Amino acid sequence: MESGIVSLGKHDRLLARAPFDVVAHKITLASGSTRRHVRSADTDGKSQHGRHARRPGVQPRTDGRGGGMDSDELRPMASIADAETAVDQLAALYEGSTSALRSALKRYLDEGVPPDSTERLQFRYPELRLTYRADGPVPRINRATAKFQAPGAYATTLTQPGHFRPYLLEQLRHLVHDYGATLEVGLSGQEIPYSYVVEPGSDLTRNGVTASQLATYFPTPLLSVVGDEIADGLWQEHPDVPRPLALFDGVRTDYSLRRLVHYTGSDWREIQPWILLTNYHRYVDGFVRHGLERLAAPDSIYEKLVLPGGISVSRAEAATADPEALIAASPWHRFQMPAYHLVARGEDGSPQGTTLVNIGVGPSNAKTITDHLAVLRPHCWLMVGHCGGLRQSQTIGDYVLAHGYLRLDRILDDLVPPEVPVPALAEVQIALQNAAAAVTGERDDTLKRRLRTGTVVTYDDRNWELRFTQERRRINLGRCIAVDMESGTVAAQGYRLRVPYGTLLCVSDKPLHGEIKLPGAANAFYERAVAEHLLIGLATLDALRADRHGLHSRKLRSFDEPPFR
């Protein structure tokens, strides 16, 4: 497996899920008794199992017996007066943990000396805990995020707090100001896997060291502690465990940050929070040209354009850069879903630019990339790709604005069952329609003839036409106007992972009416439709960016939602 995650047996999974701490040579459950003895990773070469401690908000699986040591006795939390100091402390703790882990790893690779059990206690994620003590009814606040549902303690582990500083400050300032929440910071019991602190390309096999030897002495990723229980509503409240503060904890976030590098060919830090997803490579050409034009503008807000493989174009270079040469020079073909980034920063240092990801074809890719993009807490993702038009009145090159989805992709049926409605988000729909009018210059009935709204059916089988006799009735009942293989998945993932979403597709063929892209007409279609389609997506994101605080919808929040966006 590419991620290097180890699969455990049933007994180990139960232990790894439970909130526990390493004390001497025992594991003590925070809400139960000592389950078994384990051997610490000391210089005697003996391995240690059950290394990963509790995930805040996830109920421990125990044998039901009471007692046990309170984990806070082992991991004292420091009270912090304000949000800025809390984030500073989180960053310092994270830097200390990762530096200790890197140093121990280097020493083992160079000298063969493994970390002892005391050193191992340093290799842990920082934890942030908020406590809300209500003096009366919980305040009724209209915003969708940064709000408590009930009094109590809330906690999460964090990775890369320096990078996420603007996001953390935005959430914490609201919670402290509006609720009087108290802040605590400390080291958690959740260890940082060694593979998440080494740089890509690092030589971890020198002096004959093997992966199994590293796993003996250093924390490794475990499937049992990387999950989406919080996002999927599977966590259960437990009196001895804080409620979840965020959808994704430190180890889940780190898992996705590494996957993003693998799939997109980009440093995850370059990925911007306004995202276009496409299923066709031709959109890349237009995005690179657009990016160079925006960079070269005198009043540009953008800093650089970044292509797969780390190729970067600055503002000074943009005016003379050749987009075709840049794309040709980029090793995009090495990556499954190459990404392109038009980078901008807000006044607080937060990323505010636009990313285009060519996700290829199919719901599996769509789910994979959005699973990982979600940990960056983007403001919006839009699907801008090609589709098959299902209505006689449509013309190749027309647009489809999805108001609903018939999800026959099957990939999310266990997580978001097909009977769960995925609503259209008014803010996104209005922005898309306004952008289409602005870019095409068309209005009213003229625009309506070219921009059709309705239901998109998303399949997991490109050759669904071979089953048209069976599929005809479902398409009819769904009143579907277009068919593709990604949009329903992208929208359902946005709904599931609380990322605002939208879909604008371009009709590339009409499978029910025998119309296909003819070779002689293909160039004219691509030059006009693809260029305008991409510009509509970019204009939509510009409009949403200008009023991003109104974008995050309460439609995407559950009744027991974690406070953080």
UniProtKB/TrEMBL annotation:
GO biological process per UniProt: AMP salvage; nucleoside metabolic process
Domain AMP nucleoside phosphorylase N-terminal as annotated: residue spans: 86-240
Protein name: AMP nucleosidase
Domain called Nucleoside phosphorylase: residue spans: 355-513
Keyword Hydrolase (UniProt): yes
Classification via NCBIfam families: AMP-nucleosdse, PRK08292.1
Family per record: Belongs to the AMP nucleosidase family.
Enzyme nomenclature, EC number: 3.2.2.4
Gene symbol of the encoding locus: amn
InterPro entries reported for this sequence: AMP_N_sf (IPR037109), AMP_nucleosidase (IPR011271), AMP_nucleoside_Pase_N (IPR018953), Nucleoside_phosphorylase_d (IPR000845), Nucleoside_phosphorylase_sf (IPR035994)
Primary role: Catalyzes the hydrolysis of the N-glycosidic bond of AMP to form adenine and ribose 5-phosphate. Involved in regulation of AMP concentrations.
One Gene Ontology CC term in the entry: cytosol
Protein keywords: Hydrolase
Catalytic activity entry: AMP + H2O = D-ribose 5-phosphate + adenine
Principal EC category: hydrolase
GO MF: AMP nucleosidase activity
Region annotated Disordered, chain positions: 33-73
Pfam family, one: PNP_UDP_1
Coiled coil: none
